Amino acid sequence: MSSTSTGVRAAVRGRAPAWRRRQALAAWLFALPFTLLFAAFMVGPLLASVGLSLTDMTSRDLRTPLAVRFVGLGNFVELAGDETFVRAIGNTVYFVGVGVPLTVAVALLLALALNNGINRFRSLFRVGFYTPVVTSIVAIAVVWKYILEPDGLLNQGLGAIGIGGPDWLNDTRFAMPSLILLAMWRNMGTLMIIFLAGLQGLPADVYEAARMDGANALQRFRSLTLPLLRPTLLLGCVLISVYYFQFFEEAFVMTEGGPLESTLSITYFTYNEFGYGNYGYASAASYVLAIAIGLVTLVQFRLLREKG
Amino acid sequence: MSRTTVAPAPTAAAPAPPPTVQEAGRRRRRLAVRDRWYLYVPLLLALAATVLPFAWMVSGAFKPQSEILSGEVRLLPQDGTLRNFRDLFTRVDFGHYLFNSAVVAVAVVLGNLLFCSMLGYALSKLDFPGRRVLFALVMTMLMVPTVVTFVPLFVLVTKMGLANTYGALILPFLATPLGVFIMRQFIAGIPDSLIEAARLDGAGEFRIFFTLVLPLSGPALATLAILQFLSSWNEFLWPLVAAQTEDMYTLPVAIALISASANSVNYGLLLAGATVVVLPVLGLFLLLQRYFVQGISTTGLK
Amino acid sequence: MADKKWLNGLVLLATVTLVLAGCGRDGEGSTDDAAGDVSAVADGPATGKIVIWAMGTEGEVMPQIAEAFEAENPDAEVTVTAVPWDDAPTKISTAIASGQTPDVTLINPSALASYVATGGFSTVPDDVVDKGVFDETAVAATKVGGKAYSVPLYVDTRVLFYRKDIAQKAGVPAPRSWGEWAGFAKSLQDNGAKQGMLLPTGELGFTEQVLIPFIWEAGGAITDAGQTAFTLDTEQTAAGLAQYRSFFDAGVASKTGTYEPWGSVEERLASGEIGSVIQGPWLVPSLKKILGAEYDDKVGVATIPAGPSSGASWLDGGQLAVFRDAKNADGAWKFIRFISQTAQAARFSQLTGDLPAVTAAWEPAGLTTDPTTAVFSEQLKTTGIPPTIATWTEVANVFAGFGERLARGTVTPQEAASGLQKELSGIGLR
């Protein structure tokens, strides 16, 4: 993971220990402000919540937090037998499994199109595709409900070409796809910019050579762009996966986890349990999520790194 | 904003990059839109579909409630009104909430720019005991869902006597793992030779950082600024809880409050509020978007 | 992630700390200790800063009552913070958790018990108010385990709103019993309403308030009298749920009906999209605003049609509670005493449109002459009080879930009755 430039190391090694101590001191001074804030406001609360997940703390213990019972892994055992939680895992996997590839693919397509020969209205396109990212979720909720209503914008559009659209948000089969569509709309702008940046850094001479050899556009994409873009794709996939695993806002404002719990995610489950005051149980559920995110990130690193 | 015709001014700092696809493309650029219709037409359609919800939000801000609820599809308001905006500023002290949001967002952005880049520099260019552990710890926190730490964090902030202060709204967001990741990756790309040369000239680490590293990190700083501003500006749950009196509310909280104050939602007011809220972010993005792309470009390739 | 050891170390450390801290509660229900409660309010005017949280319309107009209070108590300074209803639970429970609370907050009766269980609220000192001036059921809803933890501010209950003009066209009177109800809704639907009635399905905050009264009307009960166990696996529960489901099966109510998301209930009733709906008193001013002079011709209000046992409706309202960590409990109780005076209660009612919990305030507020209010007044005589239990939100969510399944026809009423009993027993009452 860490890759200090070997140059610095070599230089440091050659110097007197006093110099080295001075650099270490300077480094810690640089690190200090962040580390203090980080320890106080992130690591501290995190440890507290780890502790929480091993107890049966509820809102009834708020004023006497040390009087809770230690239950070890009891919460995790209970989670495994909780039908709603198991359903939430399934829903989250569905959302990530479909949403991540779809969003990555669409963003990559947009970036490729913008990078290959679009020289007019570049800023317009960039800003346009980025508007969903900056729009606040409350406004998104209002607008998208209007679009997805049974007689809303989308179904009126479909009706114009002779398709009768479903009641998107109230149908257990279509609620999740609707939210995936919404999430894609919200996040493709960020990914597009990341990919665009990656594409712009690719070496031109290699492409020229490939063109000379008579490789067509598709061949160039498969044998040049994809492998060269692998680090950028990795970054994009990891960022979007971490975010999609925490799938919550879209369901919160659009479906409240329904219909019939078909859009209830792990984060939503955690949120509900916090709301019910079951703090220990909720913390345990959130750690299941954190572990899942960690594992998937590792796998992505393996898959996309090795071949590169 | 794009620099297709103006030759980029060579910045002394930037290491000379190999010719890129983009530059090669420039030579063949003068293509008219007409020749590339097969790219422009689908892209414009996709753009229209993407911007439509946004456009509807802006248009809804100018519609009276009855027109929004009528269910008719009309992009331009039939009965345009500025009432929603007027209500926004007269019914509540909207200017004050705007000020609160601005104070918090600016402090969060500046704090992150400084602290994340300082740590990023230490992690990528300096050797010190605990470096690997610290970096691993920070990266792990990148993956922890925010709900996990919510309640303990609140207890902490109140025990520190910070409840209902700007400190409560700002401090927990000053040290973000993503910021460290971006800054570390970017600074690692700055050639060691530059830093070594400065050291040989007798410059201390702090001088190197402030006069050499920071000025070279423009794109990464711009990226971080946009991301942090965006998340601070739109943060809802934390300010709702941490601000205990109305005079400490930020914009998103205030909008939730006024748009749903009665027993039904005032959609026009809500959309007007959302429109006002989105403008500064959009402006910032417009201003910094070129650096934004550059910043990610350099970071993502590491 | 090269270094994993540190993480293991930290987890171990945290665990050890917790164990050493001596876990384990000293007996269940340690919340009824009287520490921090005041038994009497001091004489003389209130002094110092008093911070009040209030939601919705009440939050908007509360400052006007506060001004009057400050005029009488010149050394007191009242700060009212408006809080969105939806987010109030988060705000209140985090405040209690940290001990950093305001002095007073407005809450719903159904939420009271869960906060009382945290030990966050003080009991009401005996001499704050004379309980006799309040509506009886409203007072009953302030008690948890026999002790009063709040003072009622306003009451509301749900009645049947319907389109009077459509009903007249169809020639049907407002239904008095379950037997007439479905036919009534069908007539509305046949004579111009798109849906005969609107029932909430699965929407938390509404579904349980409409669904549970059906159980009461059939003679069922949510819990036993002492609120020690759920009593839902009964024939009466099944009968109530069957009545709720019958409207969907008959096609007079939408299987995906919701009150809130898009287009408000009042807009839909006014436009004829729905013919009838069960709602509270706040619908009246909004309907009058939309319909203007047409209101009297178009809107009818009736008490809930009676089932085999009764025509019980949901009792709700607002109460004021004082936090145990309040910095100015004395001032807080004095403010509550002030707003419970007949004149102030009447004024507050005029400002909000609420029905005051102080019964004597109805006349000065001009409520006794209004025919719509008369219906609410009548309905208030037949209401059920939601159980005051600590796990209420979780319980309500289970009801909402079964409401959704009943509406979509994926469970039978019998299955729902035993399912409710099983799931709720797993959650418990405290």
From TrEMBL, chain A:
Domain spans labelled ABC transmembrane type-1: 89-300
Bilayer-crossing regions: 25-48, 93-115, 127-147, 179-202, 223-245, 284-304
One GO cellular component term noted in the UniProt record for this chain: plasma membrane
GO term, biological process aspect, one: transmembrane transport
Membrane topology recorded in Swiss-Prot or TrEMBL: Multi-pass membrane protein
First-listed, main subcellular location of the protein, grouped into a coarse class: membrane
Keywords, comma-separated and alphabetical: Cell membrane, Membrane, Transmembrane, Transmembrane helix, Transport
Places the protein is found: Cell membrane
Pfam families: BPD_transp_1
Cell cycle found in the keyword field: no
UniProt similarity note: Belongs to the binding-protein-dependent transport system permease family.
The protein's name: Sugar ABC transporter permease
Provenance organism: Phytohabitans suffuscus
Gene giving rise to this polypeptide: lacF_2
Automatic annotation (TrEMBL), chain B:
Keywords, alphabetical: Cell membrane, Membrane, Transmembrane, Transmembrane helix, Transport
Bilayer topology annotation: Multi-pass membrane protein
Domain ABC transmembrane type-1: from-to ranges: 98-288
Spans through the membrane: 37-56, 97-121, 133-154, 166-187, 208-230, 267-288
Bias (Low complexity) ranges: 1-14
Sequence segments annotated as region (Disordered): 1-25
GO terms of biological process kind: transmembrane transport
Top-level taxonomic group: Bacteria
A Pfam family per the record: BPD_transp_1
Subcellular location per the Swiss-Prot or TrEMBL entry: Cell membrane
One Gene Ontology cellular component: plasma membrane
The keyword Ion transport appears for this protein: no
Signal peptide start and end residues: none
Database matches in InterPro entries: MetI-like, MetI-like_sf
SUPFAM superfamilies xref list: MetI-like (SSF161098)
Keyword Transmembrane helix: yes
Family: Belongs to the binding-protein-dependent transport system permease family.
Name of this protein: Sugar ABC transporter permease
Record organism: Phytohabitans suffuscus
Lineage of origin: Bacteria, Bacillati, Actinomycetota, Actinomycetes, Micromonosporales
From TrEMBL, chain C:
Classification via Pfam families: SBP_bac_8
GO terms under biological process: maltodextrin transmembrane transport; maltose transport
Gene3D superfamilies in the record: Periplasmic binding protein-like II
Listed PROSITE patterns: PROKAR_LIPOPROTEIN (PS51257)
Matching InterPro entries: SBP (IPR006059)
Keyword GTP-binding (UniProt): no
Molecular function via GO: maltose binding
GO cellular component: ATP-binding cassette (ABC) transporter complex, substrate-binding subunit-containing
Protein name, per record: Sugar ABC transporter substrate-binding protein
Top-level lineage group: Bacteria
Keyword Cell inner membrane: no
Protein family (similarity comment): Belongs to the bacterial solute-binding protein 1 family.
Keywords: Signal, Transport
Signal peptide residue numbers: none
Natural source organism: Phytohabitans suffuscus
